[in-house]
Amino acid sequence: MHAYPPTQDPALAPLNERIWDQLRKSLDALQPYAMSRGICIALENLIDFRGVAAGAVSKAACVDNFDLILQVYAAYPPEYIGFCYDSGHAILGRSRMDRLAPLMERLAVLHLHDNNGEEDQHRLVFDGAVDWTLAAKLIAAAPYTKPMSYEVSMRNAGIAEDVAFLQQAYTTGTRFAAMVDAHR
Question: Domain total for the chain?
């Protein structure tokens, strides 16, 4: 689930409380259904793409939603609200990886991919600016036990053939999974 950080625009700041109230209202309404079926909603780490798109702030200056996720964690149990770690989002504009550790205690979903730090490119692992050693350590320390899950795209891979792309994705994915295992 995408839950955007509070707006930093002073003109819109009064809406932040209303946005929080709406988020809580939605999560409260979904909770009985989800809990009765063992469904965990995973909040994905994001930056304030709205401010960047509006030209109000640079990617480096925009806020992330880490504090919002922690606020949601405080209000709901871990079997209902988890975390979706998007490795590419964690470095857009600047690295935010140093703030990920508290979020990883509820790691439920992985969106692993790389980028150049400026665009959400969904490149293959090891083909950009993500600190994969730190990512491996964070995932290894988390209670996550599922397979590694990659969110990669051929569009920015520089590989034209499907089979060649998939072979490279398998190779880099296997290499990263071994790094995580080595830190467990």
Answer: 1
Q: What is the pLDDT of residues 103-138, one digit of tens each?
A: 999 999 999 999 999 999 999 999 999 999 999 999
Could you list the residue range(s) of the whole structural domain that residue 42 is in?
A: 15-182
Instruction: Please check whether residue 7 lies inside any domain of the structure.
Output: no
Per-position DSSP letters for the chain, written without gaps between them: -B-PPPP--TTTTTHHHHHHHHHHHHHHHHHHHHHHTT--EEEEP-B-HHHHHTTSS-TTTS-BSHHHHHHHHHHS-TTTEEEEEETTGGGSSS--GGG-HHHHTTEEEEEB-B--SSS---BPTTSSS--HHHHHHHHHHSS--SPP-B---GGGTT--SHHHHHHHHHHHHHHHHHHHHHT-
